[in-house]
Amino acid sequence: GPSGGCIPEEYLDTPVDFDRLTELGSMMGSGGMIVMDESTCMVDVARYFLNFLKDESCGKCTTCREGIKRMYEILTDITEGRGKEGDIELLEELGWVVANASLCGLGQTAPNPVLSTIRYFRDEYEAHIKEKRCPAKVCKALIRYEIDQEKCTGCGRCRINCPVEAISGEKKKPHIIDQEKCIKCGICHEVCKFDAVNII
């Protein structure tokens, strides 16, 4: 579930039991698992899980109520390109405080997605913060779409389907995307039959 934590592929053969999963920073829960690949942004996954958990908090514990909300805000900043040095350490500190000072199981386990993704996927956090880049190419604020001038045939499918008219070009000539107008909806990438639209 959302508070179960995330573990990397290297632990795929780990027996699904309480002690082993706890050692890895995860938990047994109901025994269900979600398998993700490299096209999944682990920072965004942690943010997604905390979005659910912040709404589940009853609000009794200040550490749970405010701590989860603050961690969610920091993760949102990171995924939207506003991450800064010290955010990872602040998330770790908040996570440990929430886990150790909350009264119920929800608060005690809510930081698991954050703490486990930092533990195993720290490089993704660093790429978001230091390089302003999402390695999985998921976080819209940290990607852009570009048309490969070698592959583009000028068919016009991307231009016709662009909802904000950010693509221009003559028929049978390579097109270009106006980055100022582009809303990063991804329609151009989806409709291109020539694999000419790249996510950078």
Walkthrough of the structure:
- With 200 residues, this protein is mainly alpha-helical.
- It folds into two domains: 9-130, Up-down Bundle (de novo design (two linked rop proteins)), CATH 1.20.1440; 144-199, Alpha-Beta Plaits, CATH 3.30.70.
- The chain contains eight helices and four strands, in the order H-H-H-H-H-H-E-H-E-E-H-E.
- It has a two-stranded antiparallel ribbon with strand order 1-4. Strands 2-3 form a two-stranded antiparallel ribbon.
- Helix 2 (42-56) packs antiparallel against helix 3 (62-79) and helix 2 (42-56) crosses helix 6.
- The longest helix has 19 residues, at 112-130.
- The protein is elongated, with a radius of gyration of 20 Å.
- The mean pLDDT is 93.
